[in-house]
User: Fold these one by one.
Assistant:
Number 1:
Amino acid sequence: MENEKTCDNFDLIKAAQDGDRKAMDQLIAQNMGLVKTVARRFIGRNVEYEDLVQIGTIGMLKAARSFDLKFGTAFSTYAVPLIIGEIRRFLRDDGMIKVSRDLRKKGTVIMKAKEDFTKLHGREPKLSELAEVCDMSVEDIAYALDAVCPIYSLQETLGNDDDGTTLEAVTPASENIIEEMTDKLALAEAIAKLDSRSQQIIKLRFYRDLSQQQTAEILGITQVKVSREEKKIFEFLRKQF
């Protein structure tokens, strides 16, 4: 039954992308619960809930138009970052979070340099490489990117190695599962801000369920060091939430 529903969703997406207005309206209606759930996460920022839903719907429309079956993920999973991104852009432009014109201009320059680098080298640049290309400090690069592009891909690894953990694709079947998925996205964003060693500790300890001693042996540090680093990580994540 769930597979049939997924196929119907994909059929609607294809029809909507081909210009079928009724199909687009039906697709939006079927996924409005997802938009509302994401919008509720931003209540309390001096913006009416209904306005947040309308802005989130724009993100859903963008997801419907850009979704590709080749992504290998559920449509709802693909749509969540776009909905969050649209609402955050609105809050930054018109809400409580303000980003200066200078910072936006820097962000545009950096994103263009990142795109050019990726096309030339076949991979995304490191922050240090972007800093060199743009003649900025690594700190300025990170700050500008965080301001203009805060959303992370569900397929992005939580670390730098090839077997890094990713947020697995889920198809929400209820509001609780949708909320769980948005919580995972928020957690992924926070983890992505950590340094590489901290990300490794998280993966080894909580995704691979290794002990502190096992983690220490893999990283070449002491168990005491792992324990201390964990405390710092937890404190950082608490502040992020």
Number 2:
Amino acid sequence: MENFFEKIAPSYTFEIFPPKGNASTAGTYAVIDSLVSFNPDLISVTYGAGGSSRDNTVEITSGIQNKYNVCGVAHLTCVGTTRAELKAILDRLKANNVRNVLALRGDLKDESDLGEFHHASELISFIKEEYGNEFDIFAACYPEKHPESKSVEEDLIHLKEKCDLGVKGLISQLFFDNDIFCEWREKARAMGIKQPIIAGVMPITSAVQISKVVELCGASVPDRVRRFVNAYGHNQGAIKEAGIAYATEQIIDLLTRDVEGIHLYTMNQADTVRRIDAGIRSVLYTKRYALRSDR
């Protein structure tokens, strides 16, 4: 299979989440059936709070890689995990031909939730020490800083440390203001961060979703977004329509600003992806064709 990092930019990638515990994976595979029709370069699979869905993460990522012939990326988190458990997971991924992982600390409710690793950088070091270059490692980045960082500058210092450990690519936390992302990207490049930075976009489909997003990751919400969420109130259909339109425009603008990739947080909503895909496809492939012609 073609290496993800050898593909022509801008890349086009998706994130999905697996069911928790022993729940059936049939619904998730139905979503994947739809998503692969949009020819993504990569599909990442989340890990669940505290690793609650990690077995499903391994299974589904393996299916994406081997059944669908799409690059699968397994999320790995430090929270509540030992070195032995992580090695067992990585061995399973390796046995199933999955060689791409996204190394994360994970959401933390209390310091006691942490296992033998306290930071994503420790997890990255562990993977490199145990497996060398057998895995391509992605890391997360935060255009508006990690919620626990004191400043964007401090956060970039930690990001540079992760990159220097051997990270191959960066996937950004979601954001709604492209100016903020592009200004942050300039600072990252000035710090010497050279890895591809893939821009994370989440379409807003409900009022509840936007409040949860702000609470979890601290993303700022532009006035335009607040206006349509407030204007449509409990009319979820109208909010979804406006959210899809906003995400489509956001992606098209990012492509004009030469982002190296678009990572769509799908929330397992294949129909939402279908509609965004229809709106961006001609722009995305025009951009790819122009870059290919320049080579």
Number 3:
Amino acid sequence: MMRVPETNAGAVALAEGIGMGPARWWSELHRDLTEPVTSVPAPAGLAVASLGPYYDAARWDEPLRAAHNSAFADHWGSVPASAEAWVHQRTGSRAFRPACSAVARVADGEIAGYVLSYEHDAATARTGRRDLYVATVGTIAAHRGRGVAAALLAHVLQAARDHGCDTSSLTVDAHNPTGALRVYDRAGYRLNRREITFALPQTHP
């Protein structure tokens, strides 16, 4: 498989020339954080809270990993994250920003949804602007359609504004089965560019 910008005609032609076809489309979205964030209340029976300012790995890593593996079990290309991969790729990263990440829980503490966000210092140094990258938005299947993601995103975006971020960005599967594009549009994100994953015919979903 190969993933290329939709506007890169040469790369698209190369993929098609070796017999690949489009398997998935990805939307890169941006939001200007100078624009105000509309508060979204948590759904009934749920509470939304930040994972910071200081992240408690002993408390959160395993519940979050279990929630992630459940939330993404039906997503294209997703595989369960091991404990080691979770820390290495998610919460152990120097770019992880727990104060701008959040969790939604029911009264007994069970996780209904979560958002993990990152800020890359190298990008900030290069552009002079602080961008909060929302890497993962997950909602457990039993809680979908209740506005969990909307409440989490509103919480995270307000935190990003409060911490001085200029923009927020994310990349979403344009064929996401959970209606994610509509959620992000309502949160104020707008399309910046699209990418296409090309694959050989036998690897198409």
Number 4:
Amino acid sequence: MFENRILYEDNYILVCHKPAGIATQTARIGQADMVSEMENYLARSRARIYVVHRLDQPVEGILVFAKQQAAAAALSAQAAGDEMEKEYLALVCDLRGEDAADGSGILTDCLLKDGKTNTSRVVPSEVKGAKEARLSYEILREELPKIVKIRLYTGRHHQIRVQMANAGMPLLGDRKYAPKEAIAMSESLGIRDVALCAYRLSFIHPQTKERMQFERKPEGAAFRGIIS
């Protein structure tokens, strides 16, 4: 039931946990998505729902939605800036070789989205349409598969998957951007879903102006037996 996914709700916002495999919002008829589930949940109150930010369909994690237009505008401004803090946990295959001793760092790249293939790639900054993407990472466990905490500063298309793969730390379960070595490790561990979870979200409440923080450990199959 959708009620079991709700972490917080008031007259202005709704915070929930999105399972892996469900889209945040989709126009495809018959395909489940979070917005449709929330609209059904709120049908009796006739409250509207506004999308503030999204997670890729294979990715699980915490999302905040607005129930009023003014709240949506305030939260969207936070999501576009640095007041909304988004942290992820990921399982990676570390292919950096000698650079693997670097247990933390900041990745800054320029990404170009290809709408025809629904992919993004790292390109030089002078490429037309390229957008800056920035994140920081910290390796929490050195044993394979490595557990990495990621702080996202920009919200580009497939950003974490693209940047981490480009840096030699592809996500397990990712068949779109990971090289064959990471795919082989995923298969050996039985990981079929992208091992990425938006486990912590912090923002300023659009009405009370208080900072709120929510955290939920990964529940998807990719993390079972690895993160308890």
